[in-house]
Amino acid sequence: QVQLLESGGGLVQTGGSLRLSCRASGDTFSRYVMAWFRQPPGEEREFVASINRDGSNTFYADSVKGRFTISRDNTKNTGFLQMNNLKPQDTANYSCAADLHGRHPFDYWGQGTQVTVSS
After folding, report:
1. CA pair distance 47, 72, nearest whole angstrom
2. What is the pLDDT of residues 31-78, one digit of tens each?
3. At 116, which helix (H) or strand (E)?
4. Cα–Cα dist 2/31, whole Å
5. How far apart are CA 41 and CA 108, in angstroms?
6. For 28-112, where are the E strands, in sequence order?
7. DSSP-derived secondary structure letter, 54
């Protein structure tokens, strides 16, 4: 099974950018569909973006479309979420997830990394 570790969160001003990373270990990363989810304070977890095994297909929540980009480098066992033009409503704990079949609920999750966008 795969283990996931996120990094790259932090505090940023409105309009700023952050790049999250998700490092995979324990299994061949390219076997898994990867996704990012987030959980805003006091709210339920929500889907952000997903990417297929070879990176050729991506899917985004409407709330982040055009601002966030999901990608992966299977040679480095790492996935990414580039977040541009951040807004206060993007404040959340961001987690990466992996699943062999890409079906919800995803089987494997990281611990999460906090992103805070100040107004």
Report:
1. 17
2. 999 999 999 999 999 999 999 999 999 999 999 999 999 999 999 999
3. strand 113-118
4. 10
5. 22
6. 33-39, 46-51, 58-60, 68-73, 78-83, 92-99, 108-109
7. T
